[in-house]
Design goal:
This protein has a domain of about 110 residues: 3-Layer(bba) Sandwich (FAD/NAD(P)-binding domain), CATH 3.50.50.60. The chain contains four helices and eight strands, in the order E-H-E-E-H-H-E-H-E-E-E-E. The strands form three sheets. Strands 1-2-5 form a three-stranded parallel sheet. It has a three-stranded antiparallel sheet with strand order 6-7-8, with no helix packed on it. It has a two-stranded parallel ribbon with strand order 3-4. Helix 1 links the parallel strand 1 and strand 2. About 20% of the residues are buried.
């Protein structure tokens, strides 16, 4: 990345999207920080590309019945079912999430099961993807001057 001619920084240095107005921005990593930063910057940037090695399970902050999502599925009965039938519960959760946002259609389909990695918690990202303000891209392969080359061969030039 040191050879990249544009500006770059780590998420912990991000404060606001003020300097991103009208620019094309690549956010590398589809964790919670990457998702939040991509949504925030997409409000002012010309285009935001969100690069991910593997997709992510997208979870809303609001669960069934309007409850906070982190309270859904936490009863002792839910925990027992998860221990007795882990693959069934995993599939059930993935099916529920795909009813809200079709992960494959949105380019978010991960290579891992729901309980294998921390999910991406973001309520705004689906709207940003479907409106075209955020475009999902595969992993970055290399940086060449002002150009970013992705694993699928696609290229973005500064």
């Amino acid at each position: 990345i040191e050879s990249f001619e544009g500006n770059y920084f780590h998420s912990w240095d991000y404060r606001s999207a003020d300097d991103m107005e009208g620019k094309r921005v690549v956010v590398i990593g589809i964790g919670n920080s990457g998702g939040d930063i991509a949504v925030d910057i997409s409000r002012v940037a010309e285009k935001v590309y969100l690069s991910a090695r593997s997709g992510a399970w997208l979870v809303s902050r609001v669960g069934e019945g309007g409850l906070p999502a982190d309270l859904v599925g936490t009863s002792r009965m839910d925990m027992m079912m998860g221990k007795l039938f882990p693959s069934w519960v995993n599939k059930m959760v993935e099916n529920k999430l795909n009813k809200v946002v079709n992960h494959k259609l949105y380019g978010l389909q991960p290579n891992h099961g729901f309980f294998q990695q921390i999910p991406l918690v973001n309520d705004d990202l689906p709207a940003r993807i479907i409106s075209g303000r955020v475009q999902l891209k595969p992993n970055v392969k290399q940086f060449c001057g002002s150009t970013v080359v992705f694993a699928d061969g696609s290229v973005i030039d500064k």
